[in-house]
Amino acid sequence: MEKVGLLYLKTGGGHYSAARALEQQMSMNDSHKVEPVLIDPISDNQVLKAVLEDGYGRLCSDLQYMWPAFYNIQKSEKAVFHIHRLMQIILTDIIVDQIVKHNLERIVVLHFLLVGPVKAALEKTGVEIPCVTVILDPFTAPPLWYLGNDFPMYCFSEEVAREVMDNKSADTAVVYKHPIIVDRKFNHKPDETRYQQILSENGFNHSKKRVLIMSGGEGGGRKSLSLLQHLLKRNREYEILFICGKSDKVYKKALKMAERKGKKGVFLFTFVSNINELMSVSDVVVTKAGPASIMESLFMETPLILNDYMYGQEQGNVDFVVNNGLGSYETDPEQIGEIIMQYMDPVYIRGFRDRLVELDLKSGTESITSAILKEQRVS
Known about the structure:
Elements: E1 2-7, H1 13-28, E2 34-39, H2 46-60, H3 67-73, H4 77-102, E3 106-109, H5 115-125, E4 131-134, E5 153-155, H6 158-166, E6 175-177, H7 192-202, E7 210-214, H8 217-233, E8 239-243, H9 248-260, E9 266-269, H10 275-280, E10 284-288, H11 291-299, E11 304-308, H12 315-323, E12 327-329, H13 333-343, H14 346-359, H15 365-374
Parallel strand pairs: 1-2, 1-3, 3-4, 4-5, 5-6, 7-8, 7-10, 8-9, 10-11, 11-12
Helix pairs in contact: 1-15, 4-5, 8-9, 8-13
């Protein structure tokens, strides 16, 4: 059975969730039987994890003031070349080892920092392995995804497709557009019976509305904790579901705030695997403008308030939500409190759902999987 390597880095939840979604879909594919292999090349190297994954994560959260400089430097082809070259020096041999260890016959690149190393690894091994890149940023893609990348590329919007094809260094690039990758558990909302079960299982009040706040780790946690503190002071009629992620610091601070108010109507979660169910029983989601959380909320038919975004890279995500009337961008806790009340109004909800129907969002997980497995198929 052909082995397909799905290569990603855990610099954000979206990369891993996309890899998992493709793995699940490939495992179900009947027309082309394959064995998908999830590969984080640096999972066993604590030094590289600290530098690439934890360091990149801090750059995107705690050190956001430095992010614009990193993003803008990618507009220089020379800078992109040197970043790819540095990654090749660090990761090429590791990826060669993974190709040999798993006997890979096809590769899917799911992180822009892996484009250069995978290319160098294939050259070093001398084997002809079909390889594609899936550009996970749906509307504004960092140039590291496509500059110097001669693998076939899959993207999720006309904007990114044009951006790649209009780039002078991508004259030979092949770009395919598909709907965005979404985990199959978001394909359907729970029916009424399951909806009521979710409320009971979590101790939610069946007669109240709910707002779901996704903190996004320590960097995003500061903004979310500030919002939580403000909402706890309001005379509110809704419940608060607060997702702390893997940050113990955020959880402890949120717990202290909630306990001061008697913890009534406040539910704290650490890392959760049933985020689809929590979104489906919520009336509003407050989150950073990551593409995965945005699309997952919309597939669960829940309006969005975006309270943070990464300069450049996530600007298109904000524009998509705001311009299509699917939510707002707001950072001020008091204003967010007011918007929450607006979005819980039945008139707003009817208009929101009408706009969703008109937009006709679809998951591209199945079509991308099928296209990847058909392309340059190994005989």
